[in-house]
Fold NnrS family protein.
Amino acid sequence: MDGTTAVAPQGVLFRAPHRAMFLAGMLAVLLSFALWAWVLIARLGWWAMPQWVLPVSWVHALLSLGAAFPFFIFGFLLTAMPRWQAVESPPRKAWLPGWRLLVAGWALMLPGLWLPGLALLALLVVLAGWCVLAAALWQVAFRSPAAPLHARAAWFGVGGGVVALLAWLVVLGGGGAGWARVAIEAGLWWFLLPVFVSVCHRMIPFFSSSIIPGYALWRPAWALHLLLAAAVVHGALAMAALGQWSWLVDAPAALVALMLSVRWRPLAAQRVRLLGMLHFGFAWLGVAWLLYAVQSALALAGIHVFAHAPLHALAVGFFASILLAMVSRVTLGHSGRPLLADGPTWALFLVLQAVAVLRVGADLLPFLPWAPAMAVAVAVGGWLAVFGVWALRYLPIYLRPRSDGGEG
């Protein structure tokens, strides 16, 4: 005997919020996109389309925006936000009930895809869990004397997720396509984008300042305010089916995002892969917003181009890249491992970049005969391969004690 006490995996899992949240998030990503793969392959005629309570594209949006990303967001914010605000982390009793409700709600949603009443109940359970976790984060973001900008901006993004969930409840209660549009756009522009932009604005310059020689930390508050305002306005215009006017905010937002990317010195950041991944991911934000601006301006003139290219640049390029990079970093750092992206992690990230480029390209080049088939292949194979291998590598870490014997 070496004097150590074995700990059951479930005991280790609940030692820190990021462990339970990230594990559930990885499973949610794989399951939600496996269902989407089922749909995409069914469209090729291999088998019958699933008969769900909602149109398949709405289900894809619901699970992607509501199930796949939020677990990672809550896990990260519950871990990082107390450090930002120099306060103690929320106790387990503050976040664990919320985690259980989210897991139970999305588990109920699986059979609920075929049963309308059960789907409504499932989403109510998810909403309850979401509110529990938002309350835990409120205690950090609004009860601290530290600089509140990033914490409160991220918290309001979480509040945008509540708006999206309420709209989905209306949809399940009989609301039509208009409410579905509100739910999707709120989840994208009022929830995901504010949270991701706030985190990037706070963390990328901070990480870079300790890695890049002669780096001057630069994260102007006005830039974050502009990007957040642009996201809110874009979302509102999209909800009102006035997307042809969003170029008014998309164009300045694209310029600011690209400016931040350049000023943060992405090339110098490549000396450390884990940092370079974050810079790569953030660069996609400026590209996506620029595509939205051009698409919107041309739509105002009656010219409709790009299809879903801006959306895929935002979702696959920006959100997914930042998620993979940031979650990998938190997982390594909070498990006592070196903050180094090994060869397989770097390779997975590069494959994800290829997935993003090909998926965006399929919408930018629709006249190529192979583009639709390529899009299906990328969506089914690329995404699931990257996140499947990533989950296999990182998921076991959440069930093991820290390698350095530390807490958490």
Summary: The chain has a mean pLDDT of 92. Residues 177-209 form the longest helix (33 residues). The chain has one domain: 11-397.
